[in-house]
Amino acid sequence: MIKKTKFGVATALAVSLGASVAFADTVKIAFVDPLSGPFSPTGTNGYAEFQYAAEKLVNDQGGVLEGDMFEIVGFDNKMSPKESLIQVQVAIDQGIRYIAQGNSSGIAHAITDAVNKHNRRNPDDRVLFLNYAAVDPALTNDACNFWHFRFDANADIKMDALTDVMAKDEDLKKVYVIGQDYSFGKSVAAAAVRNLGEKRADVEIVGNELHPIGKVKDFTPYARKIVSSGADAVITGNWGADMVGLGKAIIDAGFDGPIYTYYAASNGITRTFGEQGTGHIYLVSEGAVNPPASDRTAAYVEGFEAKYPDHDITQPRIANTIEMLAKAINEAGTATDVVKVAQALEGMEHDSIWGGKLFMRPDDHQIIQNVDIQEHTSEGLQFYMDASEWGMKLVSEVEMAGMDSPTTCKMKRP
């Protein structure tokens, strides 16, 4: 539920998670992402995932330290960098020391810069930025800083894994690259061209274009160009409403090749593709639930679906973020001294609820984890998505992807 403060700033009512121990402190985490507008399905789904992770993985286990509970506080940034900075400041003014954001690398750049400046100017009121989904490689390269931690594989790491699979397709001759016109979309395009050139120099890039983010109402002209190009496959980093629009247009235009994506799951996307997406839609991600890694994984997904029937587990890294933050707080012995918490996160190894290891690389604060390639299907599923008969199933996995990937990060530590 969203309300207006007396200052006119849109904020969300804090949602208390789980039964609190009497007089226990609360560790608040600000969730700064779109809770209204065309990208709200993605934002509200992530909000639900954060709420559930905090409840089940922390609060129901007794909390952190001496019984302190996690609380997720939602702030609607309306997919605006300017509004995001306003909301981050509101959260800081409320005493919140942990900022979580993921939708749009452009917004992530604005937040990480603002957090870095704030912490320099306010050494007694520092905060950490928990980036759970913004994957522009620059965020853990030239734009890195001590206060930023990324819990998702960056665009380069994902493209490396994705093109490993594509390179094995002997029928692949022509590829069309299309994405949103901002830092992430550009990084996806550059990584696609670079990786295909290295692994399959015989493959021709027959289209490489960007479109305005969140502003295209009809993707039909783009879909027609894709079909007329003779492309055998499409690569896109589109997400949210732009993925739904592009996907529907491609289907309607009759494109019959594989579509390799970063975010073609749930939030209206799985249902839109439906039967036509079977065998054609591929997703590079982490934490596949078909098949689930363990009974604990299955129970977690079942519990989420029971509590949030209108949402899906679309970003398993959110659970990783919450578990690793709780672990760092316990190891640091404090939730308020974020320098100690950050030092505990650096180099942390953790067993993911989704299976596999997690390693927070200390050089650049880039998480290293298994990266999965999944396909859209209705066969062999334990868990479905989008209130539909379809879901995503694991077809290939790259263990600890990007472990040796280079970084230009030159981090200054406090």
UniProtKB/TrEMBL annotation:
Residues 1-24 form the signal peptide. InterPro entries: BCAA_transport, Leu-bd, Peripla_BP_I. Residues 26-376 form the Leucine-binding protein domain. The keyword Transport applies. GO terms for biological process: amino acid transport. Keywords: Amino-acid transport, Signal, Transport. Belongs to the leucine-binding protein family. This is Branched-chain amino acid ABC transporter substrate-binding protein. It comes from Neptunicoccus cionae.
